[in-house]
Amino acid sequence: MSDLSILELNDKNWEKIVEKGSKPVMVMFTSPTCPYCHQIEPSFDEYADEFKDKVVFGKLNVINSPITVGRYGIMGTPTFKYFCKGHPIQESSGAIYPPLLKKMIEDGLSRGSNCEQNTSWIDPGYA
Length: 127
Hints:
4 helices, single chain, 127 residues, alpha/beta
């Protein structure tokens, strides 16, 4: 695993990296006390190295970033969200088999530049 392949996300850098970044982003919402997070971390780290040229990988500690956690309705850890052009397009919560996590990444990439289409986005001013 290369620590450089995974960014530490937080409330302060979220907008720049996830919402305004040029690449898709795979985020693992995690906490230090989550045994399932520790179980899947080696696979997440492996995929971060494998897909580093196409996808930005980040981990967000839910304890330290309550604004982002609330904004995206994170209710448990681990939660994985795949973002394209700043929009969450795929999600999986709880313990996940590594091949399913990899498929989630590959599916997001297969959509290419059209990854956020087929969704009617809600104006945050209406919510």
